[in-house]
Each structure stands twice: as C-alpha cells, then as structure tokens.
C-alpha cells in the first residue's frame, strides 16, 4: 500500500513537473525541429501547434528558419514572431491557417500578435480567422498572404474586439482580402490598418457592422471592389489611401446612411469610383477622383475646409 | 628577480585578457555561450554578456532569433538585429536600460536596430534612458509589444532621440514619454514612421523641454493620442494621423504651448480632436479635422500661410 501510494505521489509530482516544464515563456520552432522536443532554442519544435502547447499564456513562439510550420488554433494570448525570415504557414486542402478562438479572458488582454509570417493556400480556406466568445485583439505586422479564399476574417463573438495591421500584403485572393464582421451591438470593433495592400480579390476590404477606425497609407487595387461597407454602424476614415483599378467599385456604400471620411485619397480607374446612394462621404478638397467609368454615383462628396 | 618576471608575465596576461575582452565587433546567437569571446565563430548568448566584451562604440550583431535577455548600457554602442528582428522577451522590468554617467569619445551614442521586444505584460519599460550626460539614442526598425511604457526618456539636458519605423503595440500605460531634464538644452526628437496603438494612457507624452518633429506617424486607439505638458515643448506634427483615441487626439494640457500641424489627419477622437485651452496650434491649411466629439476646443487653429 505504502509503495503504491508513494508511487502515485511521485507520479503526480512528475506530472506536475511535466506540466510546468511544458510552459515556457519563449519557445522556438525550426524546419529541423521535432514536436516531441521541449521547443527550446537548442531543441526546437517542428510546428506552431506543437510549440503552442509548450508556450505559456502571453509568451512568444520564435522562428529559426522559414519552415513551413502549418496552421494552428490559438486559444490564449500569444506572439508568433517569424522575425525577418517570413516563416511560412502553408495550409492547403481546405484547412484554415490560424484560427483564433479565445473563450475566456486571460491576464494579457486576450492579445494575439502575428509578425513576420507568410501565409499561402490554394484559394480554399482562410488565412487567419478570429472567432471566440471574449473580446480579442489581433495585431498583424510584416506578414503576407497569397491565394487565400479570405486572408483575414474577423468574426469575434464578443464586442470590443480589434484588429491592427501594419505592413501587410494580400494578393491573389478569393472572396475577400480582409473581412470585418463583429457583433452588431456593444463596443464597436476597432480597426487600424496602416500600409496594408490588397490586390486581386473579390472584395479587398469588406466591413459589415459596428466598426470604427482609420485606414492609412494603404492600397486596395485590381479587385472587384476596393472598400465595401455594408452597415450604418460602420464609420471609417481613409487617409492617403489608393483605391484603383477595381472593376466594379473603388468605395462602395452598400446601403444608405453610411458615413465615410476620405482625406488625401486617390481613387482612379475603377468601374465606379465612389458608390454613395443615400450615404455621406466627407472630404477636404484634397482627394483625387478621376478616370473612373463613373467617378461618384449617388450623393456627391461633401468637403470641409482644412485647417 | 624571478618574482619580478612573474609579475611582468601576469601583467602582460592581464592586458591580453582585457584586450581580447573588448572587441569592436561582437556576435550573439541562441547557440552562443557567454564564456565565449563573442566572435563570429564563438558567439555569446546574452546582450549583457556581449556588452561586457564589446569596446566603446562597438557593434553587437545578432545572428538569429534567440532570447538575449535585457541589457544595461553605459557607453556608446550599436546593437544590430539585422533582418532577424531578433526577439527578446522581457518578463518584467526594463528591456534596454541606458544610463550614461560620463562622456565617451563617440558622442554617447546608442543605436538599436532590427529588434523586437515583447513583454509578458508586467509593468516596465521597453527602453528607459536616464543618465547625467547628454545621450543620443537612435532606434530603427524596432517593435515593442505589451510593455508598461515602450520608450521612456528621462535623459540629461542636451540629449536626442531619433526613431524610424518603431512600433509600440498595446503598451499598458504609455507609448513614448519624453521627460528630459527640465532645464538646459532641450531634448531634440525626430520621430518618423512611428506607430502607437492601444496604449492604456497616451501614445506620445511630451512632458517638458523637448523640440522636434514627428512625421508620417500614427497614434490611434489609445486613451489619448499626443499630450503636451509644458510650454517648454515645441514640436511640429507632419503628415501624422491622430484618430480613434478614447479622449483627445492632441492635448495642450497647459496654457502657452505652441505646436505646428502640417498635413495631419485628426479624426474620430472621443472628446476633442485638438484640445487647445490657452495655447496655440498653427495649421498650414492642410489638416483634416473631423468626426471628433469636438473638433477643436479652446483656441481655434491659427492659419499659417505656406510659402
């Protein structure tokens, strides 16, 4: 009896120790790694999904070489940092790249950071998809997405979520480049896009509800629609942003009552530059809208004096 | 006599060791060891380990995405992560601490390039500059994630800060704080392409005695965008976006401050776009200010004729 009890005790101690060891604040992956390894620098793991189980909440998964590392599901605050290697997340056959599905609050602000990653697919799945039941903050910097059905899909279950992107390139996509579809009520979704470039998709940027934010120094081009807005609770500002060569619309207000601000934007070579039936587009006499089949349909751009 | 020889030998050896300990160029790798000389073929393992073996104004090069810990700097140095965006997790406290107390022959100059600092969310500074001599700091291609405050400058009079392509995401309190000595030569700042989002307090806090230009930058979704706390601060904001901050875009928190806005976009801030009680904001007639709680409170923007 004594032996059994002590064996059990030792076993549980070992299990506890194992659990503790399994959660480092920084882990590594390598194309040479193995998911049975501890994901240390000298014994890296092989996949992101192997590494995340060994990474503490709020920790960081670092990348040693381009990989590829396949997709994963994230359920806690984490940073995945491909560094300058643009670590590859190749996902094909209909499987999504990274699913972010947080269902309980953590002490790190439910924050996911993806940096220096290169997503590639076969037009059959989503690159990064946010769902979940708590407010989730996603930051994407220095990433590229190629051949995604939808590159980034924000469908958080909780109001007050956010997306900030900096230096992201999305090309040759399917239905949408960036899709923002948060809960229709509660704290608005916060959108910050800076130096984001989307080309050759159906809707380069689609925002469907309850969103505020600013899109600056960005480019939405060679798609069917550049910026597609489908909710009166969406209010975004476009600054120094180019909407060009979109076959149907540069900026489209799908329904009446939407207000969008444009400041120093260039809207050229689209089917319709701005489609604004029953809506408001506010400018500052500093936007260039030309060479579209029709420059503005619906209400004309209203302009305020600059200060 | 023999004793004398032994002394001479020991002296020569000591000099040799000191000389080898201070190379002008050292290297760091996740595979390194601080017992190594920090050469390319035998790199060190931590910033502090390499720093002690690097000569004044030398360069520490980072070979891969390791975890290099924090660093304490008291003389001129360059740390170059190259294209690696070598990442470091700062569990708590300060990532890069600069504290110079004597002048060196190289202008008291600290250059940090191509590094990522992630904090696990504990309070602390990504970078904190103090000291008793003028210190010149240059940050290029650096990201700070979830620090308490990303960059805090509490430097001596006559110091300078240049930042280019620097990002602070979700700092718990402040993005960048300029709080140099109140008297003496002002801190000179040149911030280009810097971005602060989701700061719990202020994106950029200019407390006192600071001159300079903030250009092509973005302060968005913070509690406040830019706050200026003293009439000893003279800055110009050029082509900079202040948007969707919970309170103000730009705040002059005391009377008698003068700030120039040139080509800025100030939108969708919860309280005032520009809060300017008793102070002066000069605009070149090219700033867009709209959709704020109040666009401008206090004194109106004073027009300044472009030449």
Summarize the structure in words.
The complex is a heterodimer of chains A (307) and B (307). With 307 residues, chain A is mainly beta. Chain A has helices spanning 2-21, 48-52, and strands at 24-29, 55-63, 72-74, 78-81, 87-90, 98-100, 111-115, 117-120, 126-130, 137-146, 150-154, 162-171, 176-180, 189-199, 203-207, 211-216, 219-221, 225-229, 234-239, 242-244, 249-253, 259-263, 266-268, 272-276, 280-283, 288-290, 294-298, 302-303. Mean pLDDT of chain A is 92; it is low at 7-20. Chain B has 307 residues and is mainly β. Chain B is elongated and about 60 Å long. The model of chain B is unreliable at 6-19 (pLDDT under 50). Classes of the chains: A mainly beta (307), B mainly beta (307). The interface between A and B is large, with 53 and 52 residues.
Share of residues in strands of chain A:
over 45%
Helix % of chain A is: under 10%
Biggest chain-to-chain interface with counts: A-B, 53 and 52 residues
Kindly provide the radius of gyration of chain B, computed on alpha-carbon positions and rounded to a whole number of angstroms.
Answer: 22 Å
* CATH top-level class of chain B: Mainly Beta
User: How many independent structural domains of chain A?
Assistant: 1
The residue ranges of chain B in which pLDDT falls below 50 over 5 or more consecutive positions are: 6-19
State the helix count of chain B.
2
Please give the alpha-carbon distance between the first and last residues of chain A.
Answer: 85 Å
Distance between the termini of chain B: 81 Å
Strand content of chain B: over 45%
Shape of chain B: elongated
Order of helices and strands of chain A: HEHEEEEEEEEEEEEEEEEEEEEEEEEEEE
Mean pLDDT of chain A: 92
Number of strands of chain B: 27
Low-confidence stretches of chain A: 7-20
Oligomeric state:
heterodimer
